Amino acid sequence: MSKLPQVGTTIFTVMSKLAAEHNAINLSQGFPNFPVDSVLTSILEKNATGNYHQYAPMQGNSMLLSEIAKLINQSYGRTVLENEELLITAGATQAIFTLIMALIDSDDEVVILDPSYDCYEPSVILAGGKPVRIPLRNDFLPDWNRINEAVNSKTKLIITNNPHNPSGRTWKESDIQQLEQLVEKHPQLLVLSDEVYEYITFENKHLSAHSRPKLIDRSIVVSSFGKTFHITGWKIGYLVAPKRFMDEIKKVHQFNVFSVNSIAQQSLADYLSVTDVKTLGSFYQQKRDLFQELMAESKFKLLPCEGTYFQTADYSQISEEPDVDFCKRLTTEFGVATIPISVFNSDEKDTKIIRFCFAKDSETLTKAAELLCKI
């Protein structure tokens, strides 16, 4: 008997495999194809010959915890108690799974905003909770009327994702205020604030739960070094939570991971002391702008992209095919792999929108756009 009978092979695996089979340009899965900062790789090389080969402390390397606390303070003005409110995790997905397993009990309801990252619902189901999937508006921003109608005394958690994957939208001040009002109205309600793309925003400043006094005491914030420093294969992230929640999260963490790669932790600690995350937004904005410029003559309608390294596009002027079929045909016939948005919706709602990843070098983006503009 399966605990996750509806879960099969993810669309990311399907599309990447199809891209490899047809030698297509892979703009589907969200991983960069350009080099990691040479400063970081030099630090890693140095630490490989150091004394960092045994278990790190369960909570994390003390130097790394200290550097993260400084980063949060510099970025958001929040003072984090590094020994009580911080935990290094084996990527953001493990952080999300661990905190849901720790805090969600049988029959607790968890609000998930669709389209949503595919690890949310399985984690809730495995914890014995009940996922409540609420669609975002057509512009991919929260529908607060529907959210307020869905939240009740059984709702334990709402999962927010800002900047949002897959749409690339960022929340407005009014959205954060609505979330604050929701939390005030429901004293049992917690917030899982998935902010893995927090440093990849463009025209608008990122609005974080870290900077909202009304949310801090009720929120668990998840971050990702993989996304921030384009080292997705390192699988290192961290979460911040009030001590009363962190104590329970650590109980689960110590038995499903215990500790995270020691050399990588030390290397990130060293790197954080010499790098500036504030440059990341402009770095990725240049790539977004290049891709948008290259796609200007295509038949795709590019939608607003305010954060992340994903660009959504409406293809309804090209085809009426279901988005999954269209993405497969893009890969096999036109040589560019993308991701359909319907797979992020519980009801598989298809609005003829697909997602491109522009975290690629200029040559790759140029070649991909040339192929897409011929359609």
Q: Might you state the CATH topology name of the largest domain?
A: Aspartate Aminotransferase, domain 2
| CATH architectural type of the largest domain | 3-Layer(aba) Sandwich
User: What's the number of structural domains?
Assistant: 2
Assembly type of the chains comes to single chain
**What is the mean predicted local confidence, pLDDT?**
96
Strand content: 5-15%
Helix content: 25-40%
Q: How many beta-strand segments?
A: 13
Tell me about the biggest sheet?
A: 7 strands, mixed
**Spatial shape:** globular
Low-pLDDT stretches: none
Number of discrete helical segments: 14
Radius of gyration: 20 Å
CATH class of the largest domain: Alpha Beta
What's the N-to-C terminus distance? 45 Å
Strand-pairing-aware structural class: alpha/beta
The CATH superfamily label of the largest domain reads Type I PLP-dependent aspartate aminotransferase-like (Major domain)
- Strand arrangement across the biggest beta sheet: 2-8-7-6-5-3-4
- Summarize the helix and strand pattern as letters: HEHHEHEHEHEHEHEHEHHHEEHEEEH
